[in-house]
Every structure is written in C-alpha cells, then in structure tokens.
C-alpha cells in the first residue's frame, strides 16, 4: 500500500478531538513540506531525531547506455536527495 499526503491529512484530521478541518491540516502539511524543500534546495541537511536525515548529494557524471540501441549516453552530474534512517527507525523496521 502507498501512503499519500491525502491519507496522512485524513488520519491527522480524525485523530484530534475536537476534529481539525482537513483544509487546516493540509495547509500545515504543505507548509511543512515546503520548508523541507527550501532547506534541501539551499543545500542544508534536514534532520528529524529518531527518524532520519535528508540531504542532497551530487552524483558524478557517467556514461550510460540506451538498452534498445546500445548507444552510449552522457549522463550529466546532478543533485539528488538522499535519506538516511535514524537508529530508532532502523530498529523498528528490523523488528517487522
């Protein structure tokens, strides 16, 4: 199963008593995601204790191949987002 932003908003909205409007929860979730994105775009690490760390990493240029034609292709360097899980998250996943 894939957990979507909609699923998360629904769950958070229902958990609170009195119930919080979905639109308010969606606004807060989107603001959170925007802040994480801004931090990553600025080259900063985003660390959530006991969960993990998001950071950007520069992938080196390389030569790939088109699988249909076997023609070499130049793949330029690029920034990618990487995630390293924290100890607690690793332990919880290992128990599953």
End-to-end Cα distance, whole Å, is 16 Å
Average pLDDT number:
94
In CATH, what is the homologous superfamily? Answer: IHF-like DNA-binding proteins
- Tell me the series of helices and strands, N- to C-terminal: HHEEEEEH
Give the fraction of residues assigned to helices.
Answer: 40-55%
Q: What's the total count of β strands? A: 5
- What Rg do the Cα atoms give? 19 Å
State the domain count. Answer: 1
Task: Point out poorly predicted stretches.
Answer: none
How would you characterize this protein structure?
It is a single chain. With 96 residues, the protein is of the alpha+beta class. The chain has one domain (5-95): HU Protein, Chain A (Irregular), CATH 4.10.520. It is built from three helices and five strands; from the N terminus they run ααβββββα. It has helices at residues 5-15, 22-41, 87-95, and strands at residues 46-48, 52-59, 62-65, 72-75, 78-85. The protein has a three-stranded antiparallel beta sheet with strand order 1-2-5. Strands 3-4 form a two-stranded antiparallel ribbon. A hairpin with a 3-residue loop joins β1 (46-48) and β2 (52-59). The radius of gyration is 19 Å and the shape is elongated. It starts with a helix and ends with a helix.
């Amino acid at each position: 199963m894939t957990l979507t932003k909609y699923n998360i908003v629904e769950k958070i909205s229902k958990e609170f008593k009195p119930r919080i409007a979905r639109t308010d929860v969606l606004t807060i979730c989107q603001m959170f995601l925007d802040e994480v994105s801004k931090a990553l775009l600025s080259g900063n690490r985003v660390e959530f204790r006991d969960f993990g760390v998001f950071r950007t990493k520069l992938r080196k240029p390389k030569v790939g191949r088109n699988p249909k034609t076997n023609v070499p292709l130049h793949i330029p360097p690029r920034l990618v987002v990487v995630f390293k899980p924290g100890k607690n998250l690793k332990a919880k996943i290992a128990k599953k």
